[in-house]
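Annex B.
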Amino acid sequence: MNPAGLLVLNLSIVASIVSATAQHTNKWSLPPVGDGVKVKVQVYFDSSVSTKNGSKEGQQNKTEPTINDFKTLFQLVQEHFHNQSVMTQFEVKNAQKNEGIGVTYGSHSLNASATLENLKKYAERNTSTNDTITYFFTQKPLLQQTSQGDKVDVLYDDLSTFKTFCSGETSAAVVAYYPEGKQRHYGAAEATARVFGLKKYLKFTWNDLKTLLMVFSKCPKSDCWKKCLLGNE
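28 kDa Metastriate family member: predicted structure tokens.
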């Protein structure tokens, strides 16, 4: 059997075993996946991003974020996925201000899709591993004009590539930055889920699990199909 066929067979066996085990213990719970998989995070942000809130006083005392601010944010993203039984680890490698990525739309907004395409070009030049996701954060409105109907501008919290993690394609996400709030990480989590190949970032199903099994099996870890899929040694 060729290597690709062997991998698919192994994944099928693992999924069957995990499914039977989970259904025996709790038919509503999913087993943990992704242990051993590391998401390398590369961050860019523009001058609109501040660790203060959006009030007038906050804008007057605007504070540029540091790499530690983004480490805190992605710790929340990591906890979010762990709570969904996706045990990936997020490692913020760097955080840099860059005014050349955002594509202006109107006076004070950014074109969401054009900014994502520009970010992908930056990521292609600066990403060395396929387990890296490049994020661009902004506090400017992310707008996109609809191509049908009344062509009203649509406001996005995030926009990203789809199912590109650990593939031959670039993984990138444009995300609205929120300095405060219990849900401030939701945009980054939603964008990351799409990069993983999922269409939602909460309440994953068995089909979502199968998608993650296939995606994580391509990550740079030789024993991933055993360790990373089952969530333990």
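The radius of gyration is 19 Å. The beta strands are 38-45, 89-97, 104-105, 109-111, 132-138, 142-145, 153-156, 158-160, 172-176. Further annotation is deferred to the next reporting cycle.
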